[in-house]
Design brief:
single chain, 120 residues
Length: 120
């Protein structure tokens, strides 16, 4: 059985970073963040830029995990390593982070489509 209250590290910590400081986190109310000022395009551009950079960092982290798992598989197959548990762990970590990335991408695409279908 999976412990849903367990501490999670790795890809989820990165995901929390690209939500940004103005996003509503679980257990907080939207009122505590206030409304953005009208005409403050510089802060919106900076927030968007920081979000894009955080997503870029997360994607590179997922790529690093994928490459690491590939190397551990190659080491196991070539006989350089005999520890199969570390290989399985690395592959599972890379797989989980990739699934999370795909899930976030799908949610972003769905939100974009809903926004484009809104009547003006």
């Amino acid at each position: 059985m999976v412990n849903m209250n367990a501490n999670v590290s790795g890809p989820l910590n990165s995901i929390k970073g690209f939500l940004g400081p103005n996003s509503v986190q679980p257990g907080t109310s939207p009122d505590s963040f206030g409304m953005p000022k009208v005409g403050s395009t510089d802060s919106k551009k900076a927030d968007f830029l920081s979000t894009v950079k955080a997503v870029e960092n997360y994607i590179s982290n997922v790529d690093d995990l994928q490459q690491s798992s590939d190397m551990s598989i190659k080491d196991l197959l070539s006989g350089n390593s005999e520890d199969i548990t570390s290989v399985v762990s690395a592959v599972a970590k890379a797989d989980m982070s990739f699934k999370l990335l795909v899930g976030v991408r799908n949610k972003l695409i769905e939100a974009y489509k809903q926004t484009m279908n809104m009547p003006v």
